[in-house]
Design a protein that fits this description.
single chain, about 325 residues, two-stranded antiparallel ribbon, about 5% strand, globular
Length: about 325
């Protein structure tokens, strides 16, 4: 096995996860914020602000799942059985969100049930993503290279808390997206909820940062042993600084800066998770080299990824550029 290939594929997997969380996070956040208003025109603007983007954003989820399956098949064979229930629930929630997004327009004026479906699908998808993340952070029981736990090992107080934290985080991305992309009452709604959700996200990040090392000796040693602590202390400091800048940007009614700040908070949180977990892909025992596939398979798929990756990036940039600018009432793509 070529030792550098698992590192490259870990980078590809990490990039795919980060891109999915940011891009699909804000449109899931729109669904989470949907109950904040019952005004029909405002809800139409909220959905129109993400209509050109939401389905393309899920490309990154497919890339992440494919990277895990191809590059780290042993990890895939452990992680999936450990999370069958939340993964199935997540996929069904994403389907429900997608179906409700399309059917809401054609069902008017009798579309209330699709509003409910949109909210439930978006919120449940965000929550289950968080519970899977929390379950991975707390570790998976493995024996002889196979999952050795129970069907509900993923459901713990910690994973539930992380699930709620992800809901708040996606809500923050959605709220700041509305600040950036809309005007009038919808923008005011986004600004109002962004303040509340920013507080919730910062509190949640702090609690997870304390809870995780308390439940894992490996994570505690990674962050608090010397000399690591001297190298890693800038991460929480920069996170606090970004949160402060984001707060001020919201209060000063800036347009794009709150969304940029929310994205940076997610990236810093993701960096913290990488620092805590790597090189373990199946905590607490299996590293990326332990669960790596054959070098020939990784190299073959890496060539294909390098060919397709610029196309995905190009498509994403093109769509966001084509549909740039603010969405006003009565405008939109659906």
């Amino acid at each position: 096995m070529e030792p550098y290939l698992p590192v490259i594929w870990a980078g590809v997997l990490g990039l795919a996860v980060a891109m999915y969380v940011i891009l699909d996070g804000f449109d899931l956040g729109i669904g989470i914020l949907f109950p904040a208003t019952h005004a029909e025109e405002e809800r139409d603007v909220m959905m129109n602000s993400v209509a050109p983007f939401w389905d393309g954003n899920e490309t990154w989820l497919v890339l992440g799942g494919g990277a895990l399956w191809v590059a780290f098949p042993a990890a895939y064979a452990i992680i999936m059985p450990a999370h069958y229930l939340p993964v199935i629930g997540l996929l069904l929630a994403l389907v429900l969100r997608g179906v409700s997004f399309e059917f809401r327009w054609v069902a008017k004026p009798r579309h209330r049930k699709w509003d409910v479906a949109f909210v439930l699908g978006s919120t449940l998808a965000a929550f289950l993503q968080g519970t899977i993340l929390g379950s991975l952070l707390q570790g998976i029981e493995v024996a002889d290279g196979q999952f050795a736990g129970g069907a509900f090992d993923w459901l713990t107080p910690f994973s539930v808390f992380v699930g709620l934290a992800v809901v708040a985080g996606y809500g923050l991305l959605g709220a700041t997206w509305l600040i950036m992309r809309t005007t009038g009452p919808v923008q005011a709604l986004g600004r109002d909820w962004a303040v509340r959700l920013l507080v919730a996200v910062i509190v949640a990040m702090g609690l997870v940062s304390l809870w995780t090392p308390l439940g894992s000796d490996h994570v505690a040693e990674r962050w608090f042993s010397t000399p690591n602590i001297y190298y890693l202390w800038p991460v929480p400091l920069v996170t606090a600084l970004v949160a402060l800048i984001t707060w001020q940007a919201i209060r000063k009614e800036r347009n794009a800066l709150p969304f940029v700040g929310a994205v940076l908070l997610f990236l810093l949180g993701f960096l913290g998770l990488v620092i805590s977990a790597m090189p373990y892909l199946v905590p607490p025992d299996l590293t990326i080299w332990d669960v790596s596939g054959s070098s020939s398979s990784q190299l073959f798929l890496l060539v294909g990824t390098l060919v397709l990756f610029p196309l995905v990036i190009g498509y994403t940039v093109f769509v966001y550029w084509m549909f740039r600018g603010k969405v006003s009432p009565g405008e939109g793509y659906h």
